[in-house]
Amino acid sequence: MKVLLTEMRRGEAGKVALLSGVAGVWYLLSADAATSDWIGWWNQASIKVQVFGVIVMGSLMSAAAAWTAGRARRTRADAWSDTTPRGGWAQAVLLWAAAWLWSLLVYVAMAAAAFQRTAAVSEVTAPVWSPLVLGAAMTGLQIAAGVCAGTLLPSRITAPAMGVLWYLVFVLFAFLPGVSLARLFPAIDEHWDTTFQPHTGRLLMGALWCGAAALALLALPALVRRASLSPGPLVAVPTVLAVAAGGALLTFRAPVSEPFWAVRAEQPAEPACVTEGRVRACLWPDNRHLLPQAREAARAVDRAVGPLPGFRHDFRQTGLRLVGPDSAELPVYQPVLDSGTMTEAMLSATLPSRPEGCAPHVLPETDGFPDAFLVEAVVNSRAKRPTPYYGDRFAKALERVLAAPAADQDRWLSTAAGAVGACRPVPVPPR
Q: Which regions span the lipid bilayer (predicted)?
């Protein structure tokens, strides 16, 4: 233990880890919750820490480990270091452990910062750990590669080359997401909203592959240099584990268009729902912090089209099972939404979709724009939401509808909604 602590104090990994930690914590704490795609979702918070830890900190720590591992041969002290009671594998493991422990300390600090921000938004306390375990193990593999490269190639260029090499690997696999080999170098940069949950089995298998491969890789310098103290048959244990876990990762198959590291979440027994008049909105339970915004949005939609037939009045967040023809999918792309954004999403979904293959119809009064645009503009105006400007002629048609008596306006809207859903032309606006 004393030797390990000494190595942690004298190595460059501590300084690099500290700089990475400062950058990572600042990156996580400076994110704007109103526009963030992760603050409020535990899945995304874990993914955000993991991907920063692997791509940024892991690459830098690999470079630092390469620099430290090559010091003995650069300073021509390798003849002395090779005579120590520890073999080459044990020395490599010592260097690796010293660097990896620094990275773990920083990793925990970043995870704490991300989880604290998420807990401040979410009303559900459900931290997700498996992506973090995979990220920590992948960082260990990166550091092991740095130790191996620095020992075998003790040039001053090896350290920066390792950092650049890891970055290029992640960029390459980002452009080739379907390549199975990418599973052996996991840096998960995906959007896991509440529709998904981590595939814990695959994530832990990936962590096992990274950890075993790291230990096996650390024995390579001693084998290549034919050190006096050979790693011995013990090296076969991590090697076999790495081959088995890596082979399993390459063998696993995910459904088409589904993420490899995640699965669809099961339908909740009781979604988080609000009801205003004739309008009902339901969210995933993990999004119950958005119920106040959903209530305001449902109130605005009920005010606009609540009593009108032909429109959809039941809204289910993406991924929740629809309950009938009156149900519509409600997209929620980020964990923090204001009531205005939620209202716009509901208003866009309240009008029935045209049947597949149905070409849009055009009213002369809309100046060449599809007739459904006029229906949407009337609905938005009744909900007191802004409407796009499509020209003076379109604006006059919109004013004609809004100026009509309430009964005529309601009748026209109901008929227009039915026409859109049946692929028929929308009737002429009331005069």
A: 49-72, 93-116, 128-153, 165-185, 205-224, 231-252
Domain C-terminal end among 291, 326, 350: 350
Clarify whether residues 250 and 286 are in a common domain. no
Question: Cα dist. 92→150, 159, 245, 339 in Å?
Answer: 10, 16, 23, 56
Confidence class of residue 83 from pLDDT cuts 50, 70 and 90?
low
> CA 386, 387, 390, 391 torsion: positive or negative?
negative
Same domain, yes or no: 213 and 69:
yes
pLDDT of residue 81: 52
Q: Are 85 and 40 within 8 A, CB to CB?
A: no
**370 and 242 belong to one structural domain:** no
Residue-wise pLDDT for 168-192, tens only, equals 999 999 888 778 899 999 999 988 8
DSSP letter, residue 208? H
Buried/exposed 288-309: b ≥16 CB within 10 Å, e otherwise: bbbbebbbbbbbbbbebbbebe
What's the number of domains the chain is made of? 3
238: closest CA among 210, 263, 200?
A: 210
Residue 174 lies in a domain: yes
Whether 222 is covered by a domain: the verdict is yes
Specify whether 283 is located in the same domain as 331: yes
Which amino acid appears at position 46 of this protein?
S
SS3 readout for 113-182: HHHHHHHCCCCCCCCCCHHHHHHHHHHHHHHHHHHHHHHHCCCCCHHHHHHHHHHHHHHHHHHCCCCHHH
**Residue 387 is encoded by which pair of tokens?**
């409407």
Closest residue by Cα to residue 420 from 363, 380, 342? 363
pTM: 0.88
The residues near 341 (Cβ < 8 Å, ≥ 6 apart) are 293
Average per-residue pLDDT for the chain: 89
Asked whether the predicted pLDDT for residue 272 surpasses 80, the reply is yes
Angle 232-233-236 from CA coordinates, rounded to 5°? 125
Q: What is the pLDDT of residues 304-342, one digit of tens each?
A: 998 888 899 999 999 999 988 889 999 998 999 999 999
